[in-house]
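Suppose you are handed a protein chain with no further information: no name, no annotation, nothing but its sequence. What can you learn? This example shows the usual starting point.
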Amino acid sequence: MGILQRVQYLLETEPSAALEECLISILIAIARHSPTCADAIMKCQRLVQTIINRFTSKEQMEISISKIKSVALLRILARSDKENCLDFVKTGIFQKMIWQLYRYTSFDQWVKSGKEACKLSSALLVEQLRLWKVCVQHGYCVSYFADLFPALCIWLNVPAFGKMIENSVLSEYAAIAKEAYLVLGALTRRLPIFYSHMQQLDRGTTEEAENWCWAHVGPMIDSALEWIRLKKIPLLSRLIEWQNEEKLNGDIQDSAVTPLLWLISSIMDMLSAVLEAVIPEDNAELRHGSLPWLPDFVPKIGLEILKNGLMSFSGLVSASHDSSAGSGSFLECLCYLRKINGRETSIASSSCLQGLLRVAWCVDKLILLANNEPRDLFAKYQSFTREEKTLADGILHSSLPELRTLMTSLVESNGSKWRHMKSIETFGRGGPAPGIGVGWGAPGGGFWSKHILSAQVDARLFIYLLDVFPIVSVKDQFTTEGMNSIIQKINSVMGACLLLGPMDSSAVDKLLDFLFQVPTLKYIDFSIRQFLTLKQGYQALERVYEEEDYLLLSDVLASHFKKRWLSAKQKRKSAAGDEHVCRKNPKKGNILLDTIPEEISTSNLASQEPKCLVAEWAHQRLHLPLHWFLSPLSLLCSTSHETLDFLKVAKGGLFFLLGIELMSTSLPAELRTSVRNVPIVWKLHALSATLLSGMDIFEEENSRDLYKALQDVYGQLLDREEKVDAKKLKFKTDIHENYSTFIDNLVEQFAAVSYGDMIFGRQVGVYLHHFVEDPVRLAAWNALSNACALELLPPLEKCIAATCGYLEPVEDDERMLEAYCKSWVSGALDKAASRGSASFTLALHHLSSFIFQTCSGNMLPLRNKLAKSLLRDYSRKKQHESLFVNLLEYQRPDTRSEMPQHSCNVVNRLQILKEACEGNSSLLSEVEKLSSVIIRKQHVGS
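A reasonable first move is to predict its three-dimensional structure. Written in structure tokens, the prediction is:
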């Protein structure tokens, strides 16, 4: 018997109230785990029906915790699948579970019932309203509004606060009112298109879906506007009239303030939904560029906001001459409240701000669409009141100073709070196991903690402010101060992308639109050119981007990131032909590494109406990994017809990546940006992945310059970490355990198509840097040696990063030293020596330094083994004489000394060779020959 059957059995045995509550709590936890678990509950025979029977069979007027949790369980099941919701509606379960909503209760009766009764009734009504809201979101039960409205009026209208405060039930009342207005917000989103003559819903809904009617909207707006007359609400009026922080701190100690803020937030959500339903989705509904008419409730809402002190007038020119302007506003109060320590109050304040800005933006937008022609009635405008003039000029414009301060605060917040997301990755993405990956054991709380929730609310508020203050505006001048502001905004957008989770794909979509607007790309181009021009050692870009180039970049980058990160994860096809990387010479078929996330091909799902109102951790890509912005370079094309698109994305990715890397260098060193915090191993891997499909990206000179500049930037990052005693480039550990497969194919491509291209060679050569893990360095060297490509590497001084990173410390890994020796003996280094390739320099340095300088103790057998191999090779190949002489005479460029000391070193090294021969007469004779050659060479030189 499974757990669900056991729970059902216990529920059927008339359990005690405590046991019943625990059993339903278990079912709620199971249902919340995943849609699969919710479906299992629905399919468990008689389980749901047993819960319904117990809900209805008890004393009708009695309210218990188990009843409240039963409604919550049905809400979760309805959210998980639209079919469940439809089943509840058709079978009458929905009506049975919300019958208390139909019951009319006067305000006085409810208050006099007592605090405990108010608490229980509030909790039940809240859950029932939430269940109704879920049904409305699925398109059902919209018509129930007419029957439920009379009983809802008590919760929609402003009550007598004195009685509630006296009986300490204000929080309970505010909770019900908040949910009631959230239901109205959901109903508003089922309204037909406002300017449609047929008044039909044209939003791709199913036949069962119901529509709300605009005739119901007017009274609801009137009720909502009564609530935003804050000066008539005792607790909230004090917030508007605050004069100093101490007085405000005293006012917010009242526990009822936060619930009221949540209530105002839900009212703003409903009003903004109404206004958004009026804004045309496209310009087809506009006549001569303007609205046919403006509904009366639009200016009415705007004027009520202005008259009741919700917005400040500090942005007006006349504000300095008006004693009442800027003396205090709800906006200013909310900006302060979101910064205080109380997490709940901070989140509620940010939600209020978000709703208030949405309403103000919508009113401004609609008035602009209605009056887009130049104002020709100037005399009439002069007779307007201050509020009417402000409404005509724009509500948001009146509070620009406060909004600008808020924007600065949010930029700083998003630029730093993304680091809290790293703690969630303690057990990997999604947590230690499905269902418990919500932060258990994660420092600072997990994804569902108030800590993260607060950061996400701030990120969403930041998105709305970007409509007012874009990243780069037309008026922005590229001065030092202006440039710093732009860089911080871009950094904040990058941080906000990391904060948002599975339910925020639309918010991330909007952030990507902001990030890849043409003005932002123009600024990135300006930053790149300025940096390359001012910094020595960098080559300036020759190509000048035109307007159409920026438009193409904007489209390519935005489309790629949305497709890559906002589409559902798809299982990869099993056919080898669909998995191979598009290359000019694909001999090996599938060469992708299955678990490197950047290289998994994706496809967009067909647009369908969502059947589920919740988002699983599985089958989606949010929250974003820290290295998400590298995907244009590391996402390989999967079929040949995608080659062109792949190149466009890769070229755009080079431009964007170089821009954000250079901008991050201009920020203060102590500021840990999300770009800086990505391990350099991921960045170098992304550059390499671009070349795995060939050199097509280098066909355009501008792309070559961008790629080389990125290599130089990453080389500088490696040089900064030179003194850190750790292997930083852990390709095998951090990227994939079979990274050697990736190396083999990269080297194969290098040997096949590069013809010794310096930029390609620099990228391959970085795998020989001493920061790279030993197994990966060994795999890179062996692949180059086997492909006869060692000579194709550029000189060491032209490789990525400083030469000391390749030369120090002296190699002590036995396998690497043997690989150097094997290549030397096989002749794989002959051409490399003549060309001055980095491969010969590395082999020469590490073999000479190990044999003649650093070897001691238990490494002596290895030294002797290497020396014997090199001497035997010298005895068989006289053409290697010069190579061996170089080995004997080698000194690092920064340690070369005068000739007498040099001669002494050679004598000592010859003696070491004799010791390594271990009495082998044939090898000793070769040492003597070497000694003669060196003496003869010295004599000729003198």
